[in-house]
Amino acid sequence: MIELEATRDLVDPVVIAAFEGWNDAADAASATVDHLIRVWGARVIGAVDPEDFYDFQVNRPSVGIDASGYRRISWPSTQIAIASPPSLDRDVILIRGIEPNMRWRQFAGELVAACEELGAGLVITLGALLADTPHTRPIPVTGTATEPELVDRLKLEESTYEGPTGIVGVFQDACVQVDMPAVSYWAAVPHYVAQPPCPKATLALLGQMEDLLEASIPLEDLPEDARAWERGVDELAEEDEDVADYVRSLEETRDTTDLPEASGEAIAREFERYLKRRQDDD
């Protein structure tokens, strides 16, 4: 079991979780949780014991020098942090880790038990996948939920996917087993620029978090990083005629398809986020 530091009773906490690995194309999902940990000043209160779940020849420990000048070993693990964002009237539990190499059911069970101990009422998992989407268009984000009420309120779709899954799917299923509502959001990263980072995908996931939590999230330099990323990919595409042609074909396909992220409702929602951030900054 995960040993958690003593903390005050949390107020209606919601969990946001992401894991490096198969579920995390271009590190977009884990970068989203990293961003939230930073801007919300989250405090780590517990971690999974890595000995039972990680193959250290696959996820190797690292050595470094601490603030006192001593060499220390840092082991790969999954950490649990808590935050009290000023823009929310509830607390947030942030889970940031690495997809385990073994004992997935035990791993997911320990995380769910920790969430229950902290009083969590909703779990949000984040993922990112590679897809045939052009970098010049809005990053598509798909969402699913385990409860019909959440599907209706958040305008999501019930997942019809069948096939291999990662720790995000296993963790969400573990939540279902204990009747803990769960939502999952996945960003579609252009497959031809799969190397991390992908700030545009991280920004898209943060937008979904703002909608679900009904609060603005400080974005810091992410919007400019996303624009710089897009300009950089533009330059790379211009240097290769075949790549440029391929991107244009993806753009034509997207522009002739009725897409949720390009709808009037989606544009209005983005404008509402912008206005809310402006109000919060004043």
UniProtKB/TrEMBL annotation:
Top-level taxon of origin: Bacteria
Protein name: PAC2 family protein
Matching SUPFAM superfamilies: Cgl1923-like
Recorded coiled-coil stretches: none
Organism: Nocardioides agri
